[in-house]
């Protein structure tokens, strides 16, 4: 028994000596919080798995990325290669990395049961790739990808930039932030409670939300369809000849600012909201109903703006207003 006690004490002294040699701050005079941090650091380091993989792919292939929680950052580059770095969270089984002809799949595989932690991926893809990213509570950030994009999240934010490529982006509670390049594209943006912000878009735009805010600062749009239940909407930018805006809201306010007021065909109507404009026009009440409307046509009338609300107010103006 004495031998066992002696062995245990000697082992404890050895551990203490090793601890003091590796972490001098963890002696009897060291700060308790610093000591605990240094001692627990190796445990946190082991909680994640670093990844660094790459494969040769076609320059204009399709890349699909799937993750549940964490983040996905996608960067377009000039190489015909997909490279992924980052970390897999504790409890994650593996990263599935498959290349099949013109299709590349990157999927974080989570266990069917048990806890797992967030995984963070940085993926470089050929700049002409088409891209699809699906996540749950992870954020998505895309830059430098010229091909078509389909981005889907449940609660994570989505941020992307376009170079004339078409885009579909959807989130339930996450925010969408899209920056165009002035090149024509077809863009569809949808959320439930998340906000939508878009700038420098040309071509066609569809944006919808239930309670989220919509703010669009466009270049020159051929067509725009915006809708919300209670969110506030602002649309600023040019409307092309032959173009059309269709905007609807239940209780959210609608603000539209055009590049100029020439060749307009306005059709505005609100059941209980106000209609304001900077063209010197007066809205009319429909009989004994609280409903108000404003209709106006100038020049060729080939630029159509149609707005409908229930209780949301409407405001419309232009940067250049003819006298």
Plain-language structure description:
It contains two helices and 25 strands. It has helices at 2-22, 32-47; strands spanning 49-56, 62-66, 69-77, 81-88, 94-100, 103-109, 119-126, 130-134, 137-143, 149-153, 158-161, 167-171, 176-179, 184-191, 196-199, 202-209, 214-228, 233-249, 254-260, 264-270, 275-277, 284-285, 292-297, 303-309, 314-320. It is elongated and about 70 Å long. The N and C termini lie far apart (106 Å). Strand 5 (94-100) and strand 6 (103-109) form a beta hairpin. It is mostly beta strands and 323 residues long. It folds into two domains: 48-125, no CATH class; 157-320, no CATH class. It has a 25-stranded mixed sheet that branches. Residues 1-12 and 38-46 have low confidence and may be disordered.
Task: Say how many strands there are.
Answer: 25
Provide mean pLDDT, rounded.
88
Which residues form runs of ≥5 with pLDDT under 50? 1-12, 38-46
**Percent helix:** 10-25%
Overall 3D form: elongated
Tell me the count of domains. 2
**Which sheet architecture does the biggest sheet show?**
25 strands, mixed
Radius of gyration, in Å, reads 28 Å
Oligomer: single chain
Number of discrete helical segments: 2
* First-last Cα distance: 106 Å
Percentage beta strand? over 45%
Structural class: mainly beta
One letter per element, helices H and strands E, the order comes to HHEEEEEEEEEEEEEEEEEEEEEEEEE
